[in-house]
Amino acid sequence: MSDNLLAFDKLPAEVQAKLIEWQTPGDDRFVFVPRLPVYFWLAIAAGLGWCVYLFVSTENYLWETWQYGLFLAGSLVFIPLALFAVYQAVAAKFARLKNGYVFTRGECIKTDGNRVEFWSLKELEGFQFREDIKIIEIWIGDRLEKIKAESASDAAALERVFVEWRNAAPEKSFLSALAKPETAYSGSLKLAATAGAAVALVAVSFGVSFAAKTMNRDYDDARTWKRLENGTTVADFEEYKQRHPAGRFAAEADRKMAEIFGKLKDEYAKKVKPAADPSAVDALSQLLETAGKIPNRTIYVRINETRELDDAVVKKMKQVTGFPISNYDYSIPATEVAFRKDKLLQDLGMVFLPATRSGSMNFELTDDPPANCATIDVKYFARSVENFYRYNWYSNGSITTFYNPAAKFEFELTLKSPDARELYKTSYVSLFSNLGSTGLVDSRDAANYSFDKMYFSSVSDDFSKYLGRQFGFIE
User: Fold this and answer.
1) 336 closest CA partner among 464, 443, 465, 459
2) pLDDT in tens, 254-290
3) Do residues 460 and 348 touch, judged by C-beta distance below 8 A?
4) How far apart, in whole angstroms, are the C-alpha atoms of residue 435 and residue 456?
5) pLDDT tens column, 83-120
6) Residue among 128, 129, 125, 127 at smallest CA distance from 141
């Protein structure tokens, strides 16, 4: 325990009153209570400005996680500093014992919150008033105390009488008789209070940031719903649910999606062309009804390719025509199975889009669909025929004509219910593609316009048109 450190709240009431009285300047004492530094007011202004900016920013798009992190980081800096500055301002104005220094004829007293430190004037080995910076410097042994002097005249007056007062000062100060264990100042209590205050400030910062996040979510909730409430597709309301799973309008969004699913089959039936196959229409209606009940609204598609290609047919065409006809690896390469399956999947999605658009149905390619899901099976066979196509290739300023063999594509499409019942089955043969002459293809476009890709895209287009007529989407 230091012999000159006292806790203000542990002192007798009359001593507390005396210390408070001494903080008013008089003929026998000088008081130096510093004003609140400008940077405290700047901290308060910055904190207020930050809060205004934070809450104005809530009326914006839904914050991403990183945005909330930035706002939280800003709050953890500006809000604690501002609240601490407010506390200091309030304490400076209304505290019973203000922070500062008091010089009496017998002692120097320093107050800082609940901490009271005192020295007999005889302990002060030096005194200097630096008028240029309005700072009083006193030395206690090796320790230097710097005191802000708001009143230069008081500081100068104290400097003039200091030596006289120090010479006449008693050896023991007024407060030295109170230096007892029960009145000693405990730094651990201040540390605990500081830690508690820091935790409280951080909690407030988190609270303000969370409140702003909630306001931002509520604002985006209302704005998103206003934009989508008159939507006509499930995707519109699903967008709302993805942004606000537990939003204020989540139940209404669910109701509207259910309403769209309920009308999906009827809307399709109303638009069917007269030439459609009634069995195909009925099967697709059932498929739409069952797929709409699956959470991800997915129709799973299995596609199987079988190659029955005979290079002997190519050899025969070479002999008959005299053209250097390539083998089937150029027109239907085995390495491009994935491309052909993906192309068929995309085209199937486009064929059924008029019926599935409102329900935002998904078509997913898979070899092993989940149980109890609607599926479409597509099998196709590529068989040799005595036919070929000319393919003009432009590269490095010259044109080369290639001759690639054609094939007969036989398609078989089956719609199946979730319990694997066959709802509809149809077959189609695509013998001659509408590819015609390929014109001139630049080698720089080979990634997208190689012969095999153009050829199969044309075949898939023929198949898609056939399905469009069967299901009543086109005449």
Assistant:
1) 459
2) 888 888 877 888 888 888 999 999 999 999 988 887 7
3) no
4) 9
5) 999 988 998 888 889 999 999 999 999 999 899 999 99
6) 125
